[in-house]
Amino acid sequence: MEEQLRVLEFELLNVLEVKKAELVISENHQNYDLVLVIDPASATWPDMTVRVSPFNSDGIDPVTLESGRSNEFVFPNISESNLSRFLRFEIWQGAERLRAFLIKVDIEGIPESRIGRILKSIINSRDRFFEYLRFLLADDLEKEPVGKSVRGDGSGSEGESIWDLSTPIFEQLLLAASRSPQRLVAIDEVISKLCEEVDEQERGSIVPHEFLEFWEAFKTIVPQKRGKGR
């Protein structure tokens, strides 16, 4: 079973084709509908069920992806702050979820104001800031679940400093610098946007001054961006 599961996950990550991913304005003229056309190509899962949903969209149930044909879905009424370039895939057998992972896709129509709204609505504390960085650095969602406390003891108190050189985030930054330096580009974009969108006084309550000083030196190894297509 484990071997079959690994093969299916590999096929979904490498064979599956997202033929269409487009945002259109919802009927309320405030939110967005996500239109997807997904072709599993040669991937098959006769004894399992594959479900897909937009990542970070509360209240939207996942839909079942069928093998052997092109699938078209519409996920309605997604708020701008919940828009994401990731789709969440789940592999089930009966009532048991065996695996969950994210696939990044190119989605047409994402508004330019999206990042600013996300930062203001989601990254509103130090705990949330470091939680978001951990997500960007995680190898996969199962190894580092979003929503898990950023402190190793599970306390995650916002009144305490969580930035020091022993934090797992520091270790993950070093690993990313050597193995996946492109991940640092996404982090640099988040920090830059945060500095643009949040006033200095509020910013201090979200990003420790010590971390910003560290990042100013550390980001010299961030790869140069090759255009705006992120």
Describe the protein in words.
The protein has 230 residues and is of the alpha+beta class. The protein folds into two domains: 2-109, Immunoglobulin-like, CATH 2.60.40; 115-221, no CATH class. Helix content is 33%, strand content 22%. The protein has helices at residues 2-14, 114-121, 126-137, 168-179, 183-197, 200-204, 209-218; strands at 17-25, 32-39, 49-54, 63-65, 71-78, 86-93, 96-104. The strands form two sheets. The protein has a four-stranded antiparallel sheet with strand order 4-3-6-7, with helices on one face. Strands 1-2-5 form a three-stranded antiparallel sheet, with no helix packed on it. Strand 3 (49-54) and strand 4 form a beta hairpin. Helix 2 crosses helix 5 (183-197) and helix 3 packs parallel to helix 4 (168-179).
Which helices and strands appear, and what pairs or packs with what?
Blueprint: H1 2-14, E1 17-25, E2 32-39, E3 49-54, E4 63-65, E5 71-78, E6 86-93, E7 96-104, H2 114-121, H3 126-137, H4 168-179, H5 183-197, H6 200-204, H7 209-218
Antiparallel strand pairs: 1-2, 2-5, 3-4, 3-6, 6-7
Helix pairs in contact: 2-5, 3-4
Major pleated sheet? 4 strands, antiparallel
Strand content: 15-25%
CATH fold type of the largest domain: Immunoglobulin-like
Number of H- or I-type helical stretches: 7
**Structural class computed from helices and strand pairing:** alpha+beta
**How many beta-strand runs?**
7
Sequence of secondary-structure elements: HEEEEEEEHHHHHH
Keywords:
Immunoglobulin-like; single chain; disordered C terminus; alpha+beta; 230 residues; three-stranded antiparallel β-sheet; four-stranded antiparallel β-sheet; globular; 33% helix; 2 domains
